[in-house]
UniProtKB/TrEMBL annotation:
Residues 322-338, 422-435, 454-473 have a biased composition (Low complexity). It comes from the Eukaryota. This is Uncharacterized protein. Residues 322-381, 404-522 are annotated as: Disordered. It comes from Jaminaea rosea. Residues 404-419 have a biased composition (Basic and acidic residues). Residues 474-488, 501-516 have a biased composition (Polar residues).
């Protein structure tokens, strides 16, 4: 436990849902009570080719400082402070029994010494080296125990003894990042496999082998100018924090309990294919979260209406976001569309759409080929960046573009449907006709005379002659078809089914001769 409760103490509380996030709270939060926000938040990059940990403000999630290196186990790391910008070198001492790290702060040398056994959780003591005088202990870190979580305690009364140290807040942030980097190095030493360590990059994506065109290099955090209503996601960004920040920008400023900025438009930007997918996830969660807000927290539009939901517009970027800033007198060549400023009047400024994102007319449909089409290379499928617009009202600029794309999609589907119908209506080869009927094989066979000299019809029935003899002929045909004692008629019907000429058999030849001898047949 802490030595003195009156001293400034930061408790390290890892988040259960996000292993890469550690909240640093001045007091241990209690369940079932309203707890204040954390003082700081540590966020380490996940699956990044380079080691990087950022220190964020617990309330506004603004990046205050960061520490980075090629690997967490490197002997030299750089702590970068923001506003004002200042770099501090953190170096590991060699030829010592205990692991020690040194840093310089305002002409004072600080020494971080690991305490405890090598197999036990690490503890660190921070001292100011003042040879030949004894060192001054200014901070200590102790690991988690059964009674209390891990904590960092800073001895303000010892820091006040050093007159050269005037920036105590900067020293505090530097010590927090220095101890966090030492803890990360020991964690990576115990968990060396990418499968058991979510912070290590997959094999083959190390920073030494990565190029500027690789997805991991594109996903590295870059410094770009942002407007107040813009959010840029990096590997250090936690999706839950980004969603909460977006909802805070969109909430109405009239709600005293949960006051927001009352903006009508929020833009979520990301660079790289992996971060683009994370930006889409964040935008969808913001859309759902805004829909569940109470009516009083949604605010009102310029026309006085209350927005019910957010309109989401996605624009992929063909050029990377990290471009050198233009010098004085030169126009900007950035591919990022200009973000609209918050409306100050009843007329909303129009969003300038870049030429790179203009819809192109559909290309002519290529003719089908028997050879397989070449598979596009992964470089052509990579996404340089993405911008997701979340607006409380419809944006005419994007609505017109989406209407054009929908019309082009309908035309393409209509052409495909017409092509399929034309293929189905093409004449196909006629199937082989079956026997019988007007187009059967019996239609092409010459008529065979039956007993009595009558010629059968193509369908096997005997046509009735015109005139007065029709009744007698019909009676004879009916008698012939109904009579089962006539062997010749039965044989003829059987041979007709087999497509065999009756004259080729003795019985059929005799029946044919009888038919030719009949006067009625002639």
């Amino acid at each position: 436990m802490a030595l003195d409760a009156a001293l400034f103490t930061l408790h390290f509380l890892p988040r259960q849902s996000s292993p890469s996030i550690i909240d640093l709270c001045s007091s241990i939060p209690t369940t079932g009570a309203h707890n204040p926000p954390p003082t700081y938040t540590l966020s380490r990059a996940i699956r990044s080719p380079q080691y990087s940990t950022a220190l964020l403000d617990g309330l506004s999630l603004t990046e205050l400082a960061s520490v980075g290196a090629l690997l967490a186990s490197d002997k030299r790391k750089v702590v970068k402070l923001i506003n004002p910008d200042h770099d501090v070198d953190l170096a590991r001492k060699s030829n010592v029994l205990k692991p020690q790290w040194t840093l310089q702060w305002q002409d004072e040398t600080f020494l971080l010494t690991r305490e405890g056994f090598p197999s036990s959780p690490p503890g660190y003591d921070v001292e100011i080296v003042r040879k030949p005088d004894p060192p001054i202990k200014v901070a200590m870190y102790r690991p988690e125990s059964k009674r209390s979580p891990a904590f960092l305690q800073i001895f303000d009364y010892n820091i006040d003894r050093c007159e050269k140290i005037t920036d105590k807040r900067g020293l505090e942030q530097t010590l927090v990042l220095a101890i966090a980097s030492c803890l990360d190095a020991e964690y990576d030493e115990r968990h060396k496999g990418p499968t058991e360590n979510i912070f290590l990059a997959p094999p083959g994506t190390q920073s030494g082998n990565s190029s500027s065109n690789s997805p991991d290099a594109q996903a590295a955090p870059v410094a770009i100018p942002l407007e107040p209503n813009e959010i840029f996601l990096t590997p250090l960004s936690e999706p839950a924090h980004a969603v909460e920040h977006c909802l805070g920008l969109l909430k109405s400023g009239s709600d005293v309990a949960d006051r927001g900025m009352g903006l009508d438009l929020v833009i979520v930007r990301a660079q790289g294919e992996e971060m683009a997918r994370r930006a889409l996830t964040v935008a969808e969660r913001v859309k759902v979260g805004f829909y569940r807000l109470p009516v009083a927290a949604k605010g009102r539009l310029l026309d006085g209406t209350v927005p019910n939901e957010l309109y989401l517009y996605v624009r992929p970027l063909e050029a990377p976001l990290s471009q050198p800033a233009p010098s004085a007198g030169q126009p900007s060549s950035s591919a990022i569309p200009a973000a609209p400023s918050p409306p100050t009047s009843s007329v909303r400024p129009r969003i300038k759409l870049g030429q790179a994102a203009e819809p192109t007319p559909p290309a002519a449909r290529p003719a089908p080929s028997s050879s397989p089409s070449p598979t596009p290379s992964p470089a052509t499928q990579q996404l340089a960046g993405i911008s997701v617009y979340l607006s409380k009202s419809k944006l005419e600029e994007f609505e017109a573009e989406q209407a054009l794309k929908a019309r082009q999609r309908e035309e393409r589907q209509g052409r495909e449907l017409a092509h399929r119908l034309s293929q189905q209506q093409q004449p196909q080869s006629q199937p082989h006709p079956q026997h019988g009927g007007a187009h059967g094989p019996d239609w092409l066979r010459p008529p065979v005379r039956h007993d009595g000299g009558r010629s059968p019809s193509p369908g096997g029935r005997t046509p009735s002659p015109a005139g007065s003899s029709g009744a007698g002929t019909d009676q004879s045909v009916a008698g012939e078809s109904a009579g089962t004692n006539s062997d010749s008629s039965r044989l003829h019907r059987f041979l007709n089914k087999l497509h065999v000429s009756p004259s080729s058999t003795p019985a059929g030849a005799q029946a044919s001769n009888n038919g030719r001898a009949s006067p009625a047949g002639r």
